[in-house]
Amino acid sequence: MIGAANVDWELIALALITFIVSTTVHEAAHALFAKLGGDLTAYRGGQVTLNPLPHIQREPFGMVLIPLITLYWSGGQSCFGYASTPIDAFWAIRHPRRAALMSAAGPLANLLLAAIAFALLVGIGQPESGTAEALVRIAKMFLFLNVLLCAFNLVPLPPLDGAGVLQGLVPALRPLYDAIRSQAVSGLVTMIIVVRFVVPQVYDVVLWLFRLAGQR
Fold it and tell me: Cα separation of 168 and 103, whole Å?
């Protein structure tokens, strides 16, 4: 842990707000596509909304406390958190294709946010004012976190969305995924795999996107 005097609170605040906004959009997309597919569980729980409060109330530790702790301990360099959207498991079994689309909706929403951030960086180019510099900093954070959230969640291992997508497209995989989910350490193993093999690649992709957008 670094000393409190050395903490970049502005960076931590920006990262935390970006994480909350991006996760809210992610979970709202899941909830919306579940509703469109006939599962009203999340809709009745108030998750079909871009208001972060219902999502935070459902997962206060995963959306606020844990991200804040990891940001503080890393000096704003790492952000870990989680959220979830309630679904009807029987609906997912009856409608695997709809469940796959619902699972894909969250990462695709993050991809959309990343595309918007990239377009903003391209439009600004090299900032020539304080306002432009602030917008670039915000856009860079949104681009990085949303590329990370998209790539992270598309890994086809439980409990990530990629598993839901693949299971919905290939229902025969359900017994295998159920067996994996039944193992207490499966989530931890998935996180280790993602951190080891996915996150470094995301850093490289984001740096390439920054250069492509004309940012140093």
Answer: 9
d(CA 142, CA 91): 33
Which residue among 27, 59, 128, 133 is the active-site one?
Answer: 27
Q: Give me the mean pLDDT over the 104-122 stretch.
A: 98
Whether the model clears a pTM of 0.90, i.e. scores above it, the answer is yes
Dihedrals phi, psi of 49, to nearest 5 degrees: -160, 150
- For the CA atoms of 135, 139, 141, 143, the dihedral, rounded to the nearest 10 degrees, stands at -170
CA distance from start to end of the chain: 29
In tens, the pLDDT along 16-52 reads 999 999 999 999 999 999 999 999 999 999 999 999 9
**27 is annotated as an active-site residue:** yes
Take residue 151 and report the two structure tokens written for it. Answer: 């790539």
- Alpha-carbon gap, residue 34 to 111, rounded angstroms: 19
The Cα–Cα gap between 147 and 139 comes to: 12
- DSSP output for 80-102: ---------HHHHHH-HHHHHHH
What is the amino acid identity at position 8? D
Distance CA 22, CA 18 (A): 6
